[in-house]
From TrEMBL:
<feature type="transmembrane region" description="Helical">
    <location>
        <begin position="328"/>
        <end position="350"/>
    </location>
</feature>
<feature type="transmembrane region" description="Helical">
    <location>
        <begin position="69"/>
        <end position="92"/>
    </location>
</feature>
<dbReference type="GO" id="GO:0015188">
    <property type="term" value="F:L-isoleucine transmembrane transporter activity"/>
</dbReference>
<dbReference type="GO" id="GO:0005886">
    <property type="term" value="C:plasma membrane"/>
</dbReference>
<keyword id="KW-1003">Cell membrane</keyword>
<feature type="transmembrane region" description="Helical">
    <location>
        <begin position="112"/>
        <end position="130"/>
    </location>
</feature>
<keyword id="KW-0812">Transmembrane</keyword>
<keyword id="KW-0029">Amino-acid transport</keyword>
<feature type="transmembrane region" description="Helical">
    <location>
        <begin position="271"/>
        <end position="293"/>
    </location>
</feature>
<protein>
    <submittedName>
        <fullName>Branched-chain amino acid ABC transporter substrate-binding protein</fullName>
    </submittedName>
</protein>
<feature type="transmembrane region" description="Helical">
    <location>
        <begin position="182"/>
        <end position="202"/>
    </location>
</feature>
<feature type="transmembrane region" description="Helical">
    <location>
        <begin position="362"/>
        <end position="385"/>
    </location>
</feature>
<dbReference type="InterPro" id="IPR004685">
    <property type="entry name" value="Brnchd-chn_aa_trnsp_Livcs"/>
</dbReference>
<comment type="similarity">
    <text>Belongs to the branched chain amino acid transporter family.</text>
</comment>
<dbReference type="Pfam" id="PF05525">
    <property type="entry name" value="Branch_AA_trans"/>
</dbReference>
<feature type="transmembrane region" description="Helical">
    <location>
        <begin position="37"/>
        <end position="57"/>
    </location>
</feature>
<dbReference type="GO" id="GO:0005304">
    <property type="term" value="F:L-valine transmembrane transporter activity"/>
</dbReference>
Amino acid sequence: MDKKSIAVVAFALFSLFFGAGNLILPPQLGFKAGNLWWLVALGFSLSAVLIPILGILAHSRLQGTMFDFADKVSPTFSLVYCYIVYAISIALPSPRTASVTHEMAVEPLWDTSSLVTSLIYFTLVYIFVINRSKILDVIGKFLTPAILLVLVLVIGIASATLDFSFGATSFASPFSHAILEGYQTFDAIGAVVVGGVIIISINLKHKDASYEAKKSLIAKAGIFAGLGLFLVYTGLMLTGALFQNDFEAGITRTALLRGISLETLGNVTNGFLTVLVSLACFTTAVGIVTGTADFVKGRFGDSQKAYIFTAILGCVLGVLMGQFNVGYIIAVALPALMFIYPITIVLILLNILPTRYATPKVFRWVVTATILFSVPDFMASVGWGDAILPYVSWIPLQSFHLGWALPALFVFLVSNNLERKQ
């Protein structure tokens, strides 16, 4: 594959994961991390960059759909997993785009309620989903480069004009906190859901290319896309850390991003960034609702009624959840992510391994162990942490809310050893 093909796929992957909602997470992480911003950047990149890129690599091996990710566990499990992922998508990250738009673009200018914003926002989303307009596809091609350019200016100006003096971190466990914050990007889920679209596009454009050539293309493009994401996220965290003494400690994620943008770019360019972020949020919401409606339509024999019903449901959920502030939606999302994200990470890792190390039995045992040891983290996230602590404190890494990791690895090693003996 030539360099142009690699560049095109790399930018497509970068655009796929570089969502507008993700922009509000790194600055506040750096802002609170202070002198340990670099450690937080590594933790965040582990779950928000490395795992999603590995998800794309797993797709390149499977050459299939989202169902194939969990099919080795069982077809029924795979179907349930898909429904849960799509349900989470329309109930949390989609409404969050409306909340981000309200806090960044509407609230600073007009004294209107967030309910009005989310109602108008998702009415427009529904119109675009039903009509499947290609206007947003055209706009989308210019959004990512424009946002990226403005962010480079923000990071560059902050780095060139501010003193590199950092305060103390406010995190008790910076690295693990950053890993969990990376869950909020939903990018591992995004890799599983829409990674297949990238594969299909490559297959259509390079019909005569061999399996190994396509795999190499995706691997190289993934490395460049991952490097780009890492640099942008790290730059935003550094910028947040540099502004640690310029804003109140309790500032919200959206207010911090808006404040940093005003300090570095001024009113005009900040307004430009606000419009770009709002448009990017809108295209993300349309994409999520459309993708979910397409999935349900396919499960019901290409029924247009199922498509319309799902689109309406997705937009109603958007209005109901989108009226809340971003911080609240992130808090509400945590229990769902503490349960589904470990499963998704394990499925991605198993799917990139050679088949001899990831047989159907290994899939079933490792996923089962992951589910079981994710339950304490899920219960802790809904407020039952103190009640279950005496029973789960023995689990390694449980205090960091990563109690599933070592048990999953242990079961993987044991199950592989048993498989070889058999």
